[in-house]
Amino acid sequence: MGDIFRIMGGARLSGRAVIPAAKNAVLPIMAAAVMTGDCVTLHGCPALDDVGNMAKILEELGCETRAAAGRLTIDGKNARRHEMPDLLSKRLRSSIFMMGPLITRFGRATVTYPGGCEIGLRPIDLHLKGLRRLGVDIREEHGRIYCDGRHRHAGDVLLDFPSVGATENLMMAAVLTKGETIIRNAAREPEIVDLQGFINAMGGRVSGAGSSIVRIRGVDSLHGAAYPPIADRITAGTLLTAAAMTGGEIALDGFSGDSMDAVLAKLREAGCLIDERGDGLTLSAPGRLRAVDVFTQPYPGFPTDMQAQMMALCCVAEGTSIIVENVFESRFSHAAQLVRMGADITVHHRTAVVRGGRLTGARVTARDLRAGAALVLAALAADGMTEVENISLIDRGYERLEETLTALGARIRRV
Length: 415
What we know:
Layout: E1 5-8, E2 14-18, H1 23-32, E3 39-43, H2 49-60, E4 64-68, E5 71-75, H3 86-91, H4 99-106, E6 108-112, H5 125-133, E7 137-141, E8 144-148, E9 156-158, H6 164-174, E10 180-184, H7 190-201, E11 205-207, E12 213-217, E13 225-227, H8 233-245, E14 249-253, H9 261-269, E15 273-277, E16 280-284, E17 294-295, H10 307-315, E18 320-324, H11 333-340, E19 344-348, E20 351-355, E21 363-365, H12 369-381, E22 385-389, H13 392-395, H14 401-407, E23 411-414
Parallel strand pairs: 2-14, 3-13, 9-10, 17-18, 21-22
Antiparallel strand pairs: 1-22, 1-23, 3-5, 4-5, 6-8, 7-8, 10-12, 11-12, 14-16, 15-16, 18-20, 19-20
């Protein structure tokens, strides 16, 4: 069955925390490292299962990787393969990011359909449609995608939806393509700005990330670089929400709230006092949280990766909340598990109505990464003991979460 978290609720969280590098920034940057045969060093990388799986994929392609004390080194000089390993790819949805870098490095890429959390369909048609606009020949057979980009060219790509993955894949596919490629209706997430920073640190010429139009001027080659990926805004949001739900106080040292205005706005709406300063931010919870309405949207809207945690908060807030999931069509798996803990939740299609009240301990199961985090938060605020199963999913996105929470006063242990 694997490890579980055993959590005794009722402890007030307080203290300080340092936020590690963002999983959603590190993974595409790791993929981009394939584009050069020189050595790349990333600083502050978390020891996550997803990061480990991506490192194994790179090793299967011929790269050498070394990880120690938060520093990850990738040496791609011996990379030879353009075929992705099926088994590892199915474990990690971010493996789809490898299409663009492999096309750039080798002119070809063979990938399998990606795996990861079960949060609904993940159509990659936006990736494929965009690559075809750049002259990449693509065929799909027997669950695999064969890309021939040896005759690719610069192009003007309009995305039907501001997909993060498609934006990043197209950025990487165009880096060594002669001419200027333009991506319109590009996703605007901070992690895309970070990928631009890394590519440019290797000698690329990318501009506009963070806006709806990204421009890539092709260069002849890329070189190695040392780079510190941005801090994880979702981990930060999760810890802030945990403190809010337990009536606590928390300081995030060295973390700027600029990338999570939508989350901070909802926490303030719930009654929390948040102080943003140049060297970090602090949150103080009210005596009783107020209900909030949440509508997930692409950045800079409320992030889908914080929807589950916010639903847990609404379960203990005063009043009725409405949560609408606009990004993924099947991302309410945590609702049924929260109901096992006494939550009053009604789900209809993409909308959940949450009537706040009390939670009590129960045995619950994580169905995906963020759902698992939400169950941990609910357990921290619940009466009695909760056991959370399937925590390997949580380990995909949070580095030793139980140790971080214990340092803040939580009564949680891995058994």
